[in-house]
Amino acid sequence: MHMNPPDLRPDLARARIPEERRDGQPTIGMVSLGCPKALVDSERILTRLRAEGYAISPDYTGADAVIVNTCGFLDSAKAESLEAIGEAIRENGRVIVTGCLGAEPEYITGAHPKVLAVTGPHQYESVLDAVHGAVPPSPDPFIDLLPASGVSLTPRHYSYLKISEGCNHKCKFCIIPDMRGKLVSRPAHAVFREAEKLVQAGVKELLVISQDTSAYGVDRKFAEERGHRAHITDLARDLGSLGAWVRLHYVYPYPHVRDLIPLMAEGLVLPYLDIPFQHAHPDTLKRMARPAAAARTLDEIAAWRAICPEITLRSTFIVGYPGETEAEFQTLLDWLDEAQLDRVGAFQYENVKGARANDLADHVPAEVKQDRFDRFMEKAQAISEAKLAAKIGTRIEVIVDEVDADGATCRTKADAPEIDGNLFIDEGFEDLKPGDIVTVTVDEAGEYDLWGRL
């Protein structure tokens, strides 16, 4: 059975618009690359276009123009974005570029001078203006009604819920604040109302995202409006009242994160924290301009597990950061042994245009970065395999993502879409459908995935 079905990947997202187009209706296609935050931007753009009478095409050939929402964080992501723009030009010819790479318009037009327009990240009005210029709207007020749930680029049973934009941190390897600005939190009542509509429309899982989820509301001084306070703990509690799974992503490890753990123990939000620790050696963390308190982080992890033993901890790390010595890297491996994180990813350090880390001394050779990446992932994989093996024989709840002739692809509460593992059901799955939440008995485990039966 295949894993992580391509049609569920956010970076291969296509709009899901079931209705027929009317004669003469202007039609726009969308390719959405990069992170779930960009996916939400794409959904908002398409929702606005849909409200203006545009049809949404799932392929190039049926579209009057194509929007490519790009990623520009790493050089490899930039290359992928340029490739996607080139493909759209070849297949359609009329292309509008937006997103993070749009902050460097000359970089895009230098490679693809035929693009119709380039706009930066979350510049919704500019994208709409570009579309209007390329494909004038022709709305029919009696037909073109906006669906209550808007346009979705994800399966209808889960949805990303963006709670803020931008970031106040100044990590030396990151240019997100330059591209997307400082933290701007949405009003809590607006977030809650959007979540409420999503659940009413059939969404079973809300994936809370932002650049720094635990900082939510800082810029609003945690103000309360219309009965909802702009603070991550209050927001999590409010969202937990809607009856859907609530999963928290990109949580910076501030001390007040510990206030979220009792909500997980109570079952209000999923016992899952996605915290990008990045490294464990204090000197490396200082060069990153990150909090250098790895030892205290271990104490914090122990405290979280004491309150909520079933908590799943996911994190990402950078190996081969400028100046990283073998001793610093070994500290990271030792820390990982102690922390025993459930879900772990790693990136080999890359220079990013405009990042302060580029100017640091002692950049690590490519072959050393690859060696450290391989050793890190070998250890992380062994931890994951042991933790999953311990689940054999247990009964757990899963959400169904896809059903095909081979079986059902599901996720446990410990698995976020696209980035974590799956649980597969190979027998007795015929009556299941996406969005079902069922209880299974785990009877097999691999390095990252589980198999079970109803």
UniProtKB/TrEMBL annotation:
Occurrences of domain TRAM (ranges): 389-454
Gene3D superfamilies: Methylthiotransferase, N-terminal domain, Nucleic acid-binding proteins, tm_1862 like domain
Cofactor list: [4Fe-4S] cluster
GO molecular function, one term: protein methylthiotransferase activity
Gene Ontology biological process terms from the UniProt entry: tRNA modification
Enzyme Commission number(s): 2.8.4.4
Listed InterPro entries: Elp3/MiaA/NifB-like_rSAM (IPR006638), Methylthiotransferase (IPR005839), Methylthiotransferase_N (IPR013848), Methylthiotransferase_N_sf (IPR038135), NA-bd_OB-fold (IPR012340), Ribosomal_uS12_MeSTrfase_RimO (IPR005840), rSAM (IPR007197), rSAM_horseshoe (IPR023404)
EC category name: transferase
Catalytic activity reported: L-aspartate(89)-[ribosomal protein uS12]-hydrogen + (sulfur carrier)-SH + AH2 + 2 S-adenosyl-L-methionine = 3-methylsulfanyl-L-aspartate(89)-[ribosomal protein uS12]-hydrogen + (sulfur carrier)-H + 5'-deoxyadenosine + L-methionine + A + S-adenosyl-L-homocysteine + 2 H(+)
Residues engaged in binding [4Fe-4S] cluster 2: C167, C171, C174
Sequence positions that bind [4Fe-4S] cluster 1: C35, C71, C100
An example Gene Ontology CC term for this record: ribosome
Domain Radical SAM core, first and last residues per copy: 153-386
Keywords recorded for this protein, A-Z: 4Fe-4S, Cytoplasm, Iron, Iron-sulfur, Metal-binding, Ribonucleoprotein, Ribosomal protein, S-adenosyl-L-methionine, Transferase
HAMAP family cross-referenced by the UniProt entry: MTTase_RimO
Family per similarity comment: Belongs to the methylthiotransferase family. RimO subfamily.
Function recorded in the entry: Catalyzes the methylthiolation of an aspartic acid residue of ribosomal protein uS12.
Protein name, as recorded: Ribosomal protein uS12 methylthiotransferase RimO
Organism, as annotated: Paracoccus caeni
Gene for this chain: rimO
